[in-house]
Amino acid sequence: MKKKIIITSIIVLLAIVGFFATKNLRQGTAFSMTAVSKGDMEILTSASGVIKAEKDATLRFQTSGLLSWVGVQKGDAVRKGQAVASLDKRDLQKRFQKEMNDYLNERWDFEQTQDDYKEIKENRLVTDSIKRILEKNQFDLNNSVLDVEIADLAVRFSTLTSPFEGIVVELDQPYAGVNVAPTSAFYRIIDPKSIYFEAKVDETDISKVKIGDRVKLFVDAYPEETFEGTVGKIDFSATTSSGGGTAYNAWIYFTNAENFRLGMNGDAEIIHSSLTDVLLVPISAFSEKGGKTFVWKLIDGKAQQVEIEIGNIGDEYIQVVSGLSEGDQVITSNINLLKEGMQIKTQ
Asked: Which of 65, 77, 53 has the alpha carbon at shortest distance from 173?
């Protein structure tokens, strides 16, 4: 019973729509017209994204310790190799000296053992037990060398240095005199000259994007300006778009980056090709049926459906390859109400 009610309702609704459409046609519906004209067209892909820096480093200590010195603050410019912060080295230096002493002792034992068994080796009287003693001395010496190197690295790693010229943009421990762990103290440095726009291109469009494509960039912070850029890289691995879909990051580089800041949002129009002097009609003028494309053309005041061949499709216009000529009048509104040979009243 419920199915019958729904079907009856649909039939009644269609009857009502047909009644008003017929009434509208009898009264003379007004239609919008436009002349087919030649113009330029850009084939592009749109994508949103954010400003990032290619050279972006977060420095952390590898061990816990007392933070004895901080040489930078947020916003400071730094040189490549410049010291940023340091842990108290006194304990580390003592540990290094101890490991060095142990190494010297192992070295003395090693050389003494070699001298003791020198005559035996020369006479080729080395037994398995003597061979094991000599090998153990060699292993002990090698381990001692490694201990010294590890202690030396600990001393050197107790000072953080900038890997490149840049700006300190973030730090969580600006003051010395506190104990820090590897996870609790960091200093972030970026190179403002390496700023780029990371555009998240939908997976359905990524095959169209090529390295070297020209880009128009619109940054929210500068609503009245348009910036020029170029696609420099395309990530091989996928990421997630803001809408939760699959996307790929396209790296867009530009020359006038001095006014940009990390985290600025914007939109990119990635231009794949530019067409000049081609026939264009508004998207609202065409319809599809049976895999073919049609427009309604005005001939002697009457509507005539014409099959056309189209090329590229833009946001507002489509390229006409054949079927229309420059100056032809096509109908761009209420095309679903048109019938072949209908007398047209233009608005």
From this structure: 65
Q: Is the entire prediction scored with pTM above 0.90?
A: no
Give the span between the Cα atoms of 278 and 310, in whole angstroms.
Answer: 11
Residue 35: both structure tokens together: 């002349």
DSSP codes of every residue in 274-326: EEEEEEEEEGGGEEEETTEEEEEEEETTEEEEEEEEEEEE-SSEEEEEES--T
Q: Which helix (H) or strand (E) holds 113?
A: helix 90-116
Residues whose CB falls within 8 Å of the CB of residue 315, separated by 6 or more in sequence, listed in order: 283
Structural contact between residues 167 and 260, judged by C-beta atoms closer than 8 angstroms = no
- If one counts the domains in the chain, the total is 4
> Which CATH number goes with the domain that contains 283?
2.40.420.20
Structural domain range at position 283: 29-40+276-346
172 and 185 assigned to the same domain: yes
Please give the mean pLDDT across all residues of the chain. Answer: 84
